[in-house]
Structure formats: structure tokens, C-alpha cells
Amino acid sequence: MTGQQIIFLAVALFTLGSGFMVVTTRNLIHAALWLISTLFGVAVVFAILNAGFLAVVQVVVYIGAIAILFIFAVMLTRKDMRDQGPQTNQNWWVGALIAVLVFGGLVFLLQGWNGLSRTAADIPSGFDAVAELGTALVSPAGYVLPFEVASVLLVAALVGAVYVAFNRK
Amino acid sequence: MVPLSWFLFLAAALFSIGLFGVLSRRNAVAILLGIELMLNSVNINLAAFWRYGNVLHMEGQVFAVIVFAVAAAEVAVGLALVISVYRKRNTVIADDIDMMKW
Predict the structure, then answer these.
(1) Most buried residue among A21, A153, A161, A163 by CB atoms closer than 10 A?
(2) Which of B74, B90, B69, B84 is nearest to B31 (CA)?
(3) ipTM at complex level
(4) pTM (two decimals)
(5) Residue A75 belongs to what H/E stretch?
């Protein structure tokens, strides 16, 4: 077992444990904080995969913006849910069953795929993943159209969010 | 070197945890937290397939970036809806938000 595998296992356990706490902890502020540690674990996974740009964006966008947005939303809507009453609905065991079945099904599907034990080829020397990603995002031969559609979607969603949450009184 | 399967199993487990959160939590904000976990597991898959496929093709990272944008849009709209419902109905429990139920 190489050092990279040990690091991966530690990060994976940390990520899954934090993710489990996100869905089970009672206090929603704590759930949002556990979400931050889960997102950080995923950022480390991106770093292990040599996707440095994704790791940085994960920290900046997810932890810096989305998780903070969650904490704001929890603070604006706390009240009755904090200390009393169950946090899960009556059919939570159905949800748990479906989740376990989905995981089992995915593992079953993956077991039958022959590319599963593939190992990564070395990144060619002189290959700049960030520059390649930037070129692919804005070149007409690449993905400029999905990129622009994503930006329009983001603008529309943010304008819509302001409109929906606007207090008219 | 870590084999590809480890990343895929990690993503599958994270997806299942998020799915459990979405299906079982009562609080609407907690449901959105579960959706975030599921979107993150998809991103792990995209990055893993980029790294273990042909590195010179950037599709995996490009679509991971687009998933980031979609996740940000989804969270903004979702939390705005939750806050708007909380103002009007004074609740964030998904079971109680049944105005459109016939």
C-alpha cells in the first residue's frame, strides 16, 4: 500500500464520516459545518486526482459561498426545528433502504465493469491542465456554448432568487 | 497509485448518503444539504474519469465546472424559496409545505 493510497483512504473515511454527520445530526448549524468538512474532503480528493483547479474552486465556491449561504439560511429559518421533535420523517427507514439499495446496485454494476481496476497514466510533461481547461471552456471548438448557457443560467437563477426572497412589505 | 474503483466507490457511498438525507430529513434546508452531497459525488466521478481516461481531453473537468455553476444556481433558488415559504407559513418542515397538494 503506497502513501497515496493511505492518504486516499484517510480522506475518504473523513469525507464519508462528515457526510454521514450532515444527514444525521440534529442541529442544522452543525450539519452545515459538517458539510464544510465534507466539501473540504472532496477538495482533497480533487487534489489527489491532479485536478488542482477543481480543488481551488471547490474551496472558494462551495465552502466560501454555498456553505456560508446555507448557514445564513439556517439562521434566518431556525425556530421550531432545533431541539424538539424528530428530525426525520416517519418513513426514514424507507429512505435508508432506498439509499442502501442504490449503493448496492451501484457496487453491483461497477463490479461487472472491466475498466474498474484501471490505473492512471502519468500526466505528460509540459501538460498544463488549467490552461487546457481554460482553452476548452472558451474555444468554439470546445465547450463555449455549454459554458455560456451555464453563465446565463446562473444569472437567471440569481435574479430569480432575489425576486423570490424579496420582502415586498 | 490509487485504482479507479476506489474513487467510484467513494462517490457511490457519498451519493447514497446524500440520497438518504434527501429522503429522510424533514427540514427543507437539510434536504438541500443532501442534494449538495449528491452533486459533490457526481463531481468526484467526473474528475476521476478525466484523470483515468485521456488526460488531454478536458471534458470531465469542463462538466465538473458546469456542475459547480448549476449547484450554485440550485442552492440560491432553493434557499430563496425556503426563506420565502418561511416568511409566509412560518415553517421549514417539508411535510407542512403542502399548499399545492390537492
Answers:
(1) A161
(2) B74
(3) 0.91
(4) 0.91
(5) helix A67-77
| Closest residue, chain A, to B12 (C-alpha) | A103
Q: What CA–CA distance (Å, rounded) separates A90 from A4?
A: 42
What is the residue extent of each domain of chain A? 1-82, 128-169
- Could you tell me which residues come within 8 angstroms of residue A65 by beta carbon, excluding any fewer than 6 positions away? B72
Domains of chain B, CATH where assigned: 4-96 (1.10.287.3510)
> Pick from B13, B71, B74: which is nearest to A103 by CB?
B13
CATH of domain A1-82: 1.20.120.1200
Q: Is B38 on the interface with A (CB under 8 A)?
A: no
User: Across the A/B interface, how many CB contacts are shorter than 8 Å?
Assistant: 259
User: What pLDDT, in 10s, does the model give residues A99-155?
Assistant: 999 999 999 998 888 877 777 777 887 788 889 889 988 988 889 999 999 999 999
